[in-house]
Amino acid sequence: MEGLQADLPYPETAGISEDAYSVRVISPAYADRGSEMTAILQYVFQAIVLQKQGLEEYAKMLERIAVAEMHHLEMLGSLLYQLGALPVFTSCPPRKIDFYSTGAVSYASDVRKMILDDILGETQAIYTYEEMIRKLKDEKVSAIIARIVLDEKLHLETLKNILRELNKQE
């Protein structure tokens, strides 16, 4: 399945070297409460529930978003490794403390509540990534984060469109 992503290539990681500061800045997007890991788990859960509720079109769209988020997670993990941190699922790799928890995943089963939670999550992700870009000093790392933001904005617009469709059905 193809992920829902902007129609632009991702920047190359060649030439990025170890940088503890960049690790600290981007780590929250990897495996913290509002991370790509949380988004993946939430979208997969929702896709399963929506598919079982007979809302297959919405389930497929959330699966496509989840696939894009998986790509982001893989890119961030690879980037963390290249920056000098073992990409363990903690809030601040490479430290093996404060391991990832699914506590921030929304387990709502009502389709509108799901989409509203997703809209909030994507909005927060965009804000977090834009803050990272402001803090980062490495232009190559910033470019990768900026490219991820384009996908997150596409996800947000897609979710808003789904919500509009749901509201028309009332």
UniProtKB/TrEMBL annotation:
GO cellular component, one term: cytosol
Swiss-Prot/TrEMBL keywords: Iron, Iron storage
Any Gene Ontology biological process: intracellular iron ion homeostasis
Protein name: Manganese catalase family protein
Keyword Transmembrane helix: no
UniProt cross-references to Pfam families, sorted A to Z: Ferritin
Ferritin/DPS domain: residues covered: 35-167
GO terms, molecular function: ferric iron binding; ferroxidase activity; heme binding
